[in-house]
Design a protein that fits this description.
293 residues, alpha/beta, eight-stranded parallel sheet, 38% helix, globular, binds zinc ion
């Protein structure tokens, strides 16, 4: 069994960017109701707010001020804080892995701008944090959200110690010229059109690549707008996410001693998030509570 943390704060549910992050509160509730927290190896942590200086590691003062004047400041702080704290605990060895439930997206956030329910680089900010506080240097990010992670790609485009594997093709979305820049550490691949083909694509492109890269830690941005009742590819059922979790967790086991942070902003309806999230935690913690797959 693994020591697994679940990071969440009520503000992330109550103040979520609701049209995108529609299943946040119910996703967390699904974990609570599942009884997973009664297992000694699964611990709930109330996410802390990020500090402004932690955000300034990647974002400009002008952009920070702009978000500060918006209604998305608080929810952004608690979303980022959850990822930073989870990263600290995993790198210290207090936890093996963690799920962070955020109220906003992050992968469309650049240093001085953002779009699509994103304000700051929620997951990206963990990288300078980990480098500053720990000896960690190399990171892999796997992003299975429908859309291209233009913000993460832009921020880390010249950083060869960041492997970025983004699934975003064949969705019919127009991306700005140059935003899909790829090289030896930056990749974009196609989404599947069903649970089976999505799982095939991730199995083909992720495990070997991450193992060869040898990161200190793996992040999975588990976008759920790929769900059939959401607004993205609309290709997957809720059953796909726990299966993707198994592949990603297995990859982390083999590539970086299991050090894995899963970040989701629950951008699928409540019935999907309340199904998928407890099963993802079940997988991370190596419990065996579900026999319905
Ligand atoms: Zn998306
Ligand atoms: Zn992409």
């Amino acid at each position: 069994m693994k020591k697994t943390g679940v990071f969440y704060h009520d503000i992330c549910g109550k103040e979520a960017y609701s049209s995108l992050a529609m299943g946040v509160a119910d996703g967390f509730l699904g974990i609570e109701k599942s009884g997973l927290f009664y297992n000694p190896n699964v611990t709930f942590f109330k996410s802390r707010p990020a500090l402004e200086q932690e955000i300034a590691r990647l974002h400009t003062p002008q952009w920070i001020d702009e978000v500060k004047r918006s209604q998305w400041w608080q929810v952004s702080l608690y979303s980022i804080g959850g990822v930073l704290e989870a990263t600290e605990k995993v790198l210290k060895g207090e936890l093996d892995n963690a799920l962070v439930i955020a109220g906003v997206g992050g992968h469309h956030a650049h240093r001085d701008s953002a779009w699509g329910g994103c304000y700051f680089s929620v997951t990206g900010l963990a990288i300078p944090h980990a480098r500053e506080l720990f000896k960690a240097k190399r990171f892999a990010i796997v992003d299975t959200d429908t859309h291209h992670a233009d913000g993460v790609r832009d921020i880390f485009k010249d950083d060869d110690d960041v492997l970025h594997i983004c699934f975003c093709h064949d969705y019919g979305w127009e991306y700005e010229n140059g935003s899909l820049t790829s090289n030896d550490t930056k990749f974009c691949f196609s989404h599947g059109s069903s649970d089976e083909t999505e799982i095939e694509n991730v199995l083909r492109e992720v495990p070997e690549r991450v193992k060869r890269f040898k990161p200190d830690m793996l992040f999975w941005i588990c976008g759920m707008d790929t769900h059939q009742d959401s607004y993205g590819t609309r290709a997957l059922t809720e059953k796909a996410y726990p299966k993707l979790a198994e592949i990603i967790k297995d990859t982390a086991e083999q590539a970086c001693d299991g050090k894995l942070i899963v970040k989701t902003c629950c951008n699928a309806p409540p019935h999907a998030t309340s199904y998928a999230l407890p099963r993802i935690v079940n997988c991370l913690a190596e419990l065996n509570l579900y026999h319905d797959e």
